[in-house]
Amino acid sequence: MLRPVSRHGIKLVQGRVLRAMNDRRPLPMAPAGCTLNESSLREQVDRYRRLGEMALSIEDRETRLVVTFGVGVDAGLVRETVAIERGCCSFFTLDYNASERRLSIGIDGTTRGDALRGLSVALRASAAAAARWPR
Predict the structure, then answer these.
(1) Do residues 55 and 68 touch, judged by C-beta distance below 8 A?
(2) Of 5, 94, 100, 125, which is most buried, counting CB atoms within 10 Å of its CB?
(3) Structure confidence by residue, pLDDT tens digits, 37-57
(4) What is the pTM of this model?
(5) Is 55 helix (H, G, I), strand (E, B) or coil?
(6) How far is CA 121 from CA 48, 99, 117, 127, 133, in A?
(7) What is the pLDDT of residue 125?
(8) Structural domain total, the chain
C-alpha cells in the first residue's frame, strides 16, 4: 500500500539532504542511531545520489523503498553503499538482488519513516535523477 507524503514533508527532508551535501555544520538529517560521522555521512549521501542517477525506477512505500537499476549499474557502488548502510544504521533491512538489479530498503513499522524518506530524497538529489523521478 502506497502512502502519500505531504509536500511539506518532502521539502523538509530534501532540505536536510541538500544541507548534508553542501553544509559544513552538523547534519540534522542523520537519523538517531546512525553511527556515521559528518564526513562519512556526506560520502554516503553522495553514493545514494549517484545510485539515483542509475535508477530505472524508485518506488516509495510506507515501510520500504525499492530501487531498480538498469544493466549499466555500478554493482561495486551498490555493494559499498549497502555495506556501509548495514554498518551504520542497523534499523534498516537491506537486500540487493543482483540478478534483478533491485535494491530494497525497509524499516520495521513507521517509526523510522523519516530515515527512509531521507534515503528517497538522496536518491533523487542529482539533477538527472530529479528530472526522471520527480517527487
Answers:
(1) yes
(2) 125
(3) 989 999 999 999 999 999 999
(4) 0.74
(5) strand
(6) 9, 25, 6, 12, 10
(7) 83
(8) 1
Nearest-angstrom CA–CA distance, 106 and 72: 24
Task: State the residue for C-alpha cell 554516503.
Answer: 44
Above 60 in pLDDT, residue 3?
Answer: no
Q: Encode 26-60: b = buried (16+ Cβ within 10 Å), e = exposed.
A: ebebbeeebebeeeebbebbbbbbbbbbbbeebeb
103: nearest Cα among 129, 70, 127:
70
Closest CA to 101 of 54, 135, 44: 54
Closest by CA position to 84, among listed 43, 121, 50: 43
Q: Domain containing 79: what range?
A: 7-132
Evaluate whether residue 56 is within a structural domain. yes
Residue 27 has pLDDT above 70, yes or no: no
Q: Is residue 73 part of a domain?
A: yes
- Cβ atoms of 13 and 23 within 8 Å: the answer is no
DSSP string for residues in 95-106? EEETTTTEEEEE
Q: Is residue 2 one of the residues assigned to a domain?
A: no
